[in-house]
Design brief:
This protein is an all-beta fold and 106 residues long. Helices cover 0% and strands 29% of the residues. The chain has no helices and 9 strands. The radius of gyration is 15 Å and the shape is globular. The protein starts with 7 loop residues before the first strand and ends in a 20-residue tail after the last strand.
């Protein structure tokens, strides 16, 4: 899928997510191939949106490599972040349990 939105970047042809290049505000239009989607919530620079529908359990690819798996179905143009993906390599970071990721220093 080609994107004609200058606010989005596909880093590798195998990616199923697009990187936000400038902050998107609610109401902004995203042109994804033949589809035009309206941004529903603020998306900061560097965040990801789905380039196409992504099924629950499907690998999320960025830079041409899997970076995690979808924990639920993700619609084309939807924000892709820690609320709907999980890392296949490291535990998902949550502020509430960050102590479990670090060893106490003596």
């Amino acid at each position: 899928m080609n994107t004609s939105s200058p606010q989005l970047l596909r880093l590798h042809e195998a990616d199923n997510v697009l990187t936000v290049l400038s902050t998107l505000e609610p109401g902004d239009a995203l042109h994804l191939g033949q589809t035009v989607l309206t941004v529903g919530k603020r998306l900061p620079i560097g965040h990801k949106v789905a380039a196409r529908p992504i099924a629950a359990g499907e690998k999320i690819c960025k830079y041409g490599v899997p970076i995690g798996s979808a924990v639920c179905a993700i619609a084309e143009g939807e924000h892709v972040h820690t609320h709907n993906i999980k890392s296949d390599y490291l535990p998902t970071f949550e502020r509430e349990n960050q102590h479990s990721y670090f060893q106490p220093t003596p």
